[in-house]
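User: Hello, can you help with two protein structures?

Assistant: Certainly.
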Amino acid sequence: MSDRDFTFFHAPNSRSSCMLFLIEELGVPYVLRPVSLARQEHKTPDFLAINPMGKVPAIVHGETVVTEQGAIALYLGDLFPETGMCPPPGDPQRGALLRWLFFYGSCVEPAILQKAMKWPDPPKSTAGYGSYDDVVAAVVGQLAGGPWFLGERFTVADGLWGPALAWLTQFGLMPATPEIAAYLARIEARPTTARARAIDAELAAKQASG
């Protein structure tokens, strides 16, 4: 067993599908541990020992446990530098990578929740993400410099953002602006998109029949 082998805890057709896409893009070996949300396997004592939040995704690498999509993307990108998908410290793009990995969890998720729940806009001074419109404008502005989040270089940030934006636009939680639509078309064209969907479909079928 390699000292870089890791276990990926994943529930099909959930937020962890973003990390499935990312891991397949990295093209590295991993152990897949399916988690059935229908059977509440994410709430068992064994899984709660890995993530007390009872959420997927999660990875275990040796004695290290990593949860949260942005953190997993960064950890795996640094673990496999030969993929070229994670600008290392000292690379001029490292700062942008960190910004957009953390922007998703700290700004997009709360802004999207506000929109989905139809909550009134909070005062900008109290919301770390400013407003839903601010978040959308930031994403659109970044993608305008495409083709990928960091420009010409496909990175672990795209591994997170590609599937996430596809899901968000599908449910009307983010607008399919020309910039976002063009980005998603490029994500859709990647062979990994079909591969990750096939893995998810097979896992979902097994869980439904079992």
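That covers the first. Now for the second protein you mentioned:
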Amino acid sequence: MPLPKADVLVVTWTVDEGHALSRVLTPGKDSRDDYLSYKHNFESISKKMRRGCPAVEAGRLGAYWTTSINGKLVVVFKSDSHMSQDGPALPNIDVWRQIIAEVQPTLVITTGTAGGIGSQFEVGDVVVSPIVRFDCISKFKTEPFAQTHYRSAAAKTKLFATARDLFKVNAAQLPRDNKRLPKIVRASPNSLKSSVITTDFFGFDTSDNHYKLQGLGAVSEMGDAVLGLVSAEMGTKAPRWLAIRNVSDPQIKAEGSLRDQAKVAAQIYKGFGRWSSVCSAIVCWAAIATD
């Protein structure tokens, strides 16, 4: 069945991200155990997917639930389709096209974990960006979109101070070496340096800038710019959108081998990915309630 129509579509990606988002936006309904499976056109779309990718293994494109926030109907969608996992045919583009066409939202939010770029970020910080950009230097480097960026309208921030106050409840679950309460960074549509970067490789910021991410944006992840691409295709019919990403791993010190640094990043993500995602979920609530 198609997704229901709603005012807002919120999309997240990993198991931990889905768990955190569902605990905040759909309390009592967990994304793993309770959400409804979404299989509409799975048979045709999955033909483009590689064997063994999460969507093929799950036999669906994702799972969803509906909720209401300040009078707005919201579809919360945990995607099993990923730009980084589906294969070279990029069927995640088809998934985005389909779910936006079905929900017909006025606002779309893509949310979840990301790597902080620069020493100023701590685990749990949240970047709210109306600008996303591809940094494809690997399997998609020859695609027309490989270094393209996309813009939407700036976020409405009336409830962001309230959201940050709510971070206090969760702060004890974040790293002990955090020096402050997580902050909310509001990116400008005119500032590429505050954008969310979508890479086609597993990279993370290091103090010696190994992956050349510094100066490109605020955080890096592996999928959000696909939403920008699909929205650009839609032109004036595209909904407003935001990328709301929490820092799950900060800049890593360039000590030891690159493999050692990757292990450190992975350990931080494993320990705090779910809890840091609670912060971005709270900001999603604030952005929707204000809209």
